[in-house]
Amino acid sequence: MITLDTADHILRPAEWVLPGHPDRLADAVAERLVRAATELDPKALCAIEVAVHRDRVYLTGRIACPGSRDLDLTALAREVYAAAGYGERWHPAPGELQVEGNLCLDDLAEGEADARHLSDDQGIVTGYAIDLPGTCWLPPEQWLARELGERFNALVRGPLELCPDGKLLVVLEESSASAPPSKRRWRWRTLSASLLAPDEVDGVTLYRMVRSCAQEVLQRARAALPGMEDAEPEILVNPGGSFHVGGPEGDNGLSGKKLLLDFYGPRVPIGGGAITGKDHHKPDRNFARIAREVALAVVRTGVADEATVTAITLPGDGAPRVLRIATPKGDLAEPGRWGGVRWM
């Protein structure tokens, strides 16, 4: 049956992937290199892109800080694969990885460290918050997908020994959408899970495990989300057929592709810049954080029950330039109230 959205009735989709998904592996390698560099120097400049396929990891970009040339890139990449769950059961095993690429490793140029607080690029950033503390002020459908993804990821280390690569999609039905968030009604309509299990795990066992995870997360959702119904969703496990090869053995991966997972899901427009592989001074990352903090401040102070902050940054800026703060009751225009930003 096809259900059409209305002004007061909306179907909200969201997705998640497990840490062993090729794109997420690439993100995690990039993030591990950022962490290693900033441990050497908090002002380290990092702009890293990663691609993975089979037993290869390709690195490009730049890491600039004292000691960057001494970073053991191969060991760091292998650490990420092991943490995701690759090894004896699922390949590539961390010890088999070959790290290649053209990553520039150098020191910060003269004066570069003193300018790290300034934007070194242009960009568009978005911050969002909704008055639902139980979901960490995130869109409930994206929170639900994340919670379920984390529960599925626990099965990688559990008795089923699931492949670290997997994905899921949920659809949450939102009723009374024009009411305050705490007064809305929510029903989990659909769960599609694409998971790879060992050959000895039959489809019935896998389905039961997925359903058990869904029931557990549904109870968490009822505690976190006012108005959440207790009806179980339609559950589809590998609706296109069983998988036999997963992870980088079955697909390539690139960092920066899972932007919706890093932000707020499809409900909220994203600015456009990836945050993975970039240090915390980079505007795509730093100013997106500031935009989120402004949106949280609007909601937590009771000015609005939902807020979307849209801002831009230009080279040389020390703070994002806010274009608008959109709320259900219209745009806010109180530049003196919100710290850490400037207005166009």
TrEMBL record:
* Span of domain S-adenosylmethionine synthetase C-terminal: 245-310
Q: Which GO terms describe its molecular function?
A: ATP binding; metal ion binding; methionine adenosyltransferase activity
What keywords are annotated for this sequence in UniProt?
Answer: ATP-binding, Magnesium, Metal-binding, Nucleotide-binding, One-carbon metabolism, Potassium, Transferase
GO terms under biological process: one-carbon metabolic process; S-adenosylmethionine biosynthetic process
Start and end residues of each S-adenosylmethionine synthetase N-terminal domain: 14-88
What is the E.C. number? 2.5.1.6
Which InterPro entries does this one have?
A: S-AdoMet_synt_C, S-AdoMet_synt_N, S-AdoMet_synthetase, S-AdoMet_synthetase_sfam
Indicate yes or no for the key word Membrane. no
Q: What is this protein called?
A: S-adenosylmethionine synthetase
Task: Please give the organism.
Answer: Quisquiliibacterium transsilvanicum
Starting at the broadest rank, the lineage of the source organism is: Bacteria, Pseudomonadati, Pseudomonadota, Betaproteobacteria, Burkholderiales
